[in-house]
Specification:
187 residues; alpha+beta; Chalcone isomerase; 7-stranded antiparallel beta sheet; globular; binds heme C
């Protein structure tokens, strides 16, 4: 009888600890965007960002030549860190995916949706200035661009020419247009 009870208790213990380890969230501090970067500072596009990176938010750009949806994803834990510390953690990766749009009259009204990726912009937070001589690194970030005709080929040559001019209005928020990302604010 005693043995049976002991067995039941240890079984329950096993069941409880197994359940616990299954619900435990994956450690977020292990994420390091520099895993995407080689020794020379070339930035690789994160292949699995649609599965692993939460959406930070989106911008819709109305343009007579064709409307666009911009969806920005961030590496795991980025928003949580930002809310706590008011800045992006070293090694944070942001991916902005630019889509065209389609629209139709739906039960909500004239509904527009993202359709067909055009380009991907990638940024890697670099607090330490790892690549001082590399024209794709500076102002606290690595900057990269990929186009859908060759999705894995990085095509930006100089962030000062290709990126910075357009990001000057966001200088006060570390070059990032944070106003479009409600998840960075209070819950
Ligand atoms: C034509 C102007 C323009 C150029 C050129 C440009 N950006 Fe941006 N970028 C913006 C604007 C404006 C936003 C936010 C609003 C939006 O997406 O429409 C943005 C957003 C982003 C985001 C999402 C985070 C954020 O700041 O909101 C990333 C990542 C990004 N840009 C990277 C780059 C990189 C890397 C380059 C150069 C290869 C680049 N951008 C060139 C204007 C530009």
């Amino acid at each position: 009888m005693m043995d049976f009870r002991l067995a039941m208790v240890s079984l329950m213990f096993v069941a409880l600890t197994t359940a616990h380890s299954q619900t435990e969230p994956q450690s977020k501090s292990t994420f390091n965007g520099f895993d995407l970067v080689d020794k020379a500072g070339n930035i690789g596009k994160p292949k699995d960002f649609r599965d692993r990176y939460p959406t930070l938010g989106s911008y819709m750009v109305l343009d007579p030549k064709g409307n666009q949806m911009h969806i920005t994803y961030s590496s795991p834990g980025a928003a949580e860190y930002y809310r706590k510390n008011g800045k992006f953690a070293d090694g944070t990766v942001l991916v902005k995916e630019v889509f065209g749009t389609e629209h139709a009259q739906m039960t909500t009204g004239d509904a527009n949706w993202a359709s067909g990726t055009k380009v991907w912009f990638v940024m890697v937070k670099d607090e330490k200035g790892h690549f001082p001589g590399n024209p794709l690194w500076g102002n606290g970030w690595g900057w990269a661009l990929y186009k859908s005709d060759a999705p894995d080929k990085q095509v930006a040559t100089d962030f000062k020419k290709d990126c910075l001019g357009c990001h000057i209005p966001a200088k006060g928020t570390d070059w990032i247009y944070v106003q479009g990302y409600p998840v960075l604010g209070a819950k």
